[in-house]
Amino acid sequence: MIRVWVTGGAGFIGSHLVRYLLETQPSLEIHTVDALTYAGNLHNLSDVLDHPRHKFHRIDIADRESIEPLWSQTKPKVIFHLAAESHVDRSILSPLDFVHTNIVGTATLLEVARRHWNGCSDVLFYQVSTDEVYGSLEGEEYFTEQSPYHPRSPYAASKAAADHLVRAYGHTYGIPYLISNCGNNYGPYQFPEKLIPLVITHLMERKPIPVYGNGLNVRDWIHVLDHVRAIALLAERGKRGRTYLIGAKNPRPNLEVVKLLCTLYDEMTGSRGSEALIRFVKDRPGHDFRYAIQPSTHLFELGWRPQVPFEEGLRQTIQWYLTHKEWLEAVRSGEYQRYYQLQYGDRF
Ligand code: NAD
Ligand code: DAU
To answer: Does this model's pTM top 0.90?
Structure first.
């Protein structure tokens, strides 16, 4: 058995990655390392918690005292590093949480990796990162692997710092690494603070839908399974020490996405006039205007293609939320209500 870690494996993308690796790679034993913050949920892993090749460890990645013994015990070959504070709006409210997990947490993992690595060339530190490290585009251009880092939110700055640390450890100590930067993911199990699940849940509850500013900001959307398939492929065949951009070439203004969700929701449920729920609200401070990704050519050469067309993916996602009301209730209890009030209380 080859042991691998998935940090943040109880989160949105991480839980899909854990499931995908268990399904497709029978030689892997997966160790999910996750602190179970508000965003991490064992409900996301309920179907694989008892899987014989999956073990769950509730650990804060910044807690070296806990990370180090687990490393000695499991000797992982690949660290899929996804654990993070991931929501931009929360990074504006409490930046230090982002410094703790995204910077100190990543540095802690790298330190432990450095101590235990022993020069093996078949080890991999896989840093899952974001296109937000490149800042904001103004015209019709795309981010490429050559784009300079220009992070502009506390979240983006913390992810950029983490990427730099990974490269520095690779360069200085020789730890084999790979970084991939991806755009906006959507799909089942996404925490309903993010735009698409937030809109779907508000449609379900017939609540006003908050669109920041004028709704013209552009995000580049990709289905979470297309992202996860790219990560798994790159871990196996991607070049070490390289950066890959993952994207489905699907940049769209927020308002277009919100209106499309309203139309699909009405078609699927027989509701009417959902667009009337849209409200333009106070903008996000420092709101980046446009993200758009030119996916790495080498990713296509390896045979990866995005497989989920946007409309179809949105339909499946709406259907998933409609049929997982218990999941929604569980993740939106307590802390979510407090956050929602803080974030949106004076916006409507
Ligand atoms: P998420 O917020 O859904 O999940 C994050 C997970 O990390 C949770 O399970 C949480 O419990 C865990 N976690 C947080 N702090 C931790 C700590 N200190 N120790 C251990 N675990 C901790 O995030 P996501 O959307 O699944 O994103 C996963 C990764 O992918 C992040 O690194 C994010 O920056 C990156 N990413 C996300 C997107 C996106 O659109 N969601 C796009 C590109 C890159
Ligand atoms: O680009 C990749 C990034 O995408 C990831 O690295 C982040 O982890 C992920 O959270 C996401 O960041 P965004 O800020 O782009 O995602 P979010 O869903 O919060 O917002 C998408 C767009 O919608 C953004 O322009 C802000 C806008 N928005 C968001 C919310 C929550 C609204 O108009 N209204 C809202 O209520």
So the answer is: yes
